[in-house]
Specification:
single chain; alpha+beta; 7 strands
Length: about 325
């Protein structure tokens, strides 16, 4: 004997994978094309591209999972209705609500996953991507080319005559201070290293000069290090609470947008069921004409919440949508089956 919950879950899973995998592939392809455009202003290799893709993976999942869930739910019930399987279940005195119980548990699981992705993973990966991007842009800026003027390391102008894979030859560094003094450093060779997003320019076997209209100072050295910390200059990492608190204080209600969309599987369950659980002899329906209007409706509501919403408005809106969906389910499904 086939377990009803297992049967419904398997039917939903097949439909979900059929929808989710193509959507995920398309979303991934869009991000890969976007990543490829970054090569115009930073140097990235295949490993860097995979790293950037991993930073954007939570975003791809967050926007594809809800639509995949709604589409799979609609397709599952439409297929079961058209093949008269739902009618067979109802004739065996199985209530429609019992059919929804396994899907309701799946919807809760999806909402929890979406909340974790939207409120935790996406802020973290977004900041990691910003840090990575700042580091790569800095590396590109520090890709010093031989015999080219105007190149800089921090506030210093840098000029070299030759360069191999690891070492710069005959390096000259100059800086003009606001007080009128000048700094000049000359070295036979130099190396550039990146340690925890801090770039070290190590000068070997050289001399340095500090001079202005009244004084002239000279030093010689075997090794001297100059550094540029991109974390302090370009990016400050925040934990999840700090990230959302700062945005909310600035009047940016992005957190409401993510919370509402995370609850979409639960909110869409009853409206979709009320439109797709039908008697095929008297009524036909299409997944597109069910999912498309609902998707547009939910995204409009989420955009309005992001623009002018509060947590109270979010709570009331979510509760109203759930109640209206359940009323539709009672009127259109429970009343007849």
């Amino acid at each position: 004997m086939v377990n009803l919950s297992s049967y419904i879950s398997k039917a939903f899973t097949k439909s979900f994978l059929t929808i989710f995998l193509p959507l995920f592939f398309i979303g991934s392809l869009v991000f890969i094309v976007k990543i490829s455009t970054m090569t115009s202003y930073m140097q990235i290799d295949f490993y860097d591209m995979m790293k950037i893709f991993s930073f954007n993976l939570p975003s791809i999942l967050f926007y594809t999972l809800p639509v995949s869930f709604m589409s799979a739910l609609a397709i599952t019930f439409i297929r079961l209705s058209n093949e008269n399987e739902l009618i067979a279940f109802f004739s065996l005195t199985i209530k429609p609500q019992k059919l929804l119980n396994p899907i309701f548990l799946i919807a809760m699981l999806f909402s929890i996953i979406l909340l974790l992705i939207g409120l935790a993973l996406m802020p973290l990966t977004a900041q990691q991507f910003s840090s990575f991007k700042a580091e790569k842009i800095t590396e590109s800026q520090l890709n010093i080319t031989p015999s080219q003027l105007g190149q800089k390391f921090g506030d210093f102008f840098v000029f070299i005559t030759d360069k191999d894979e690891h070492t710069m030859k005959n390096i000259t560094i100059f800086k003009k201070e606001d007080n009128g003094s000048n700094q000049l450093f000359i070295a036979s060779d130099a190396t550039l290293n990146n340690i925890n997003s801090v770039f070290y320019l190590t000068l070997n076997h050289g001399s340095g000069y500090t001079y202005d209209e009244k004084s002239f100072k000279e030093i010689t050295y075997d090794k001297m290090e100059m550094l540029k910390d991109i974390n302090s200059d370009e990016f400050i990492f925040k934990n999840i609470v700090e990230y959302w608190s700062e945005l909310y204080k600035k009047g940016k209600n992005k957190i409401l947008f993510f919370i509402f969309l995370s609850l979409l599987p639960l909110l869409a369950l009853y409206p979709i069921a009320s439109s797709t659980i039908v008697n095929p002899r008297y009524k036909k329906t299409s997944a597109f004409f069910v999912v498309a209007p609902l998707t547009i409706f939910f995204y409009v509501i989420s955009s309005l919440l992001e623009k002018d919403g509060t947590f109270l408005i979010l709570s009331v809106t979510t509760l109203l949508i759930f109640i209206v969906g359940y009323i539709l389910f009672r009127v259109r499904v429970l009343k007849y089956f």
